[in-house]
Structure prediction request, 497 residues.
Amino acid sequence: MTDNDSAWGPGENPEDFPTRASRRRTGRDPGTGPISEVPRFADRLSPAPQVPQPAPQQGQQSAQPERQSEDTVRRPVLDIRFDESAHGVRTMSVPVVLPQQPPAPSTGPAAPAASAAVKSTVSAPVPQAPTPAPKSTVSTPVPPAPRNAPEGRMHSEAGGTTTAVTTLPPVPSAPSAPAEPPRQSRRQDSAEGRRRSFLAPDNGTVPAETGFRGLLSRMGVRVAPSKRELISRAHTRAVSQHWPGPRTISVVNGKGGANKTPTTVMLAAVFARNGGGPVLAWDNNETRGTLGWRTEQGPHNSSVMDLLPETSQLLAPSAQSALLARYVHHQTEDKYDVLRSKPDVLASEQKVTADDFDALHEVASKYFRLNIVDSGNDETAERWLRMIHHTDQLVIATTTLEEHAEAGALLLEALRARGGKYAELSQNAVVIVSQSDKNGTAAQAQHIADGFAQLARSAVTIPYDVALLKGRIRWGSLKPATQGAWLAAAAAVADGL
Prediction:
């Protein structure tokens, strides 16, 4: 066959082989009907023809609103928009029609009118964006819907908007979840609360330093400390701390010879040797106090009566702490200072009033962090009462003798009966029971200490030591057991500061 030859054979007419388009034009396609009855594609997107409805007569209601009220209520819940800048793409708004809940029955005449359906509008055209859409925009065409569909049909509205109406079952409302905090704030909180520190924790244990365990540690074998050594270390930490502001400890007992002066010396030595800093042992006894006799004397003979006229000068802003060395006696071994009384004069010649004691205490609090006051035996003296007024921690000194213990117990009961600060000092008091008898036993001292359990906060015992009986008292001259007992007593006192 050449280009000039016909594709049809002899006697064949092209009209005998009609196409689908030709059949539709001639109306011979049984599936489509005449061309006048076949809608074009553009006609499918045009608004549906509005059939005029006859006006309802008086007393009758329109059937269409009643059917809509019974079936559905149209609400716009979904809006799907496509890029209008793409060729042949329209904006589509899809409202979802949900069934309306049946209206509550009403006996009034307005009940039928209230049950009519309220149909929400469908969509509105979306304004054109001033800038063209990017080339990567993907447009989705909307398929046509059959003309005779009562629900779910698509028709073109104003502005070229295509609307699809779909009926869906009712969706139960979900409870609203609480709003979460911003992610950035949660990240900051976790960073502040959970960040791992770059510093290594201080959980190391110092090896044993005393006894046989300490000997092994010095030989290079690391051995953990014993329970006794751990307790001793805890006591050392307690007496080594410093407190905010000066503190006053008063050692009292109304009975003479109850071991008040040795108790004052030992407490001052423990706090000064371990905590450092200025510590003062103050003899507040107007009747021949012996604190100056039991301690080291400095290069002068000054006493509290020499310091009293100089209190104003020492309280001046320009006063220097070194000036105080003229009036106190420094203990070179145990590192504390002593403010002596004058035991060689009568009590009438060294009378100290309440104002005098307040001035002396102000000087002592300015230059010393810890004041340990050795009291006299007269509980009615002004200096004794002012001492109690400035006291932060009360210490009852006693021996294993019954009269000494009874005097201390009566004093605690008298202070508690006065109430106020006196009662607080009595309840927080520490009782130190010293074994004064060489032949005495530890059980005797413990029996006395147990008797103060209901009167004071704590009661400790001190074993017998000959170095405490007479002469100058030095820490280094005590037995190790006595040193440990005084360390425990001072730790009990420190707990109340």
The chain has 16 helices and 13 strands. Residues 61-73, 106-168 have pLDDT under 50 and may be disordered. The longest helix spans residues 402-418. The longest strand covers residues 72-80.
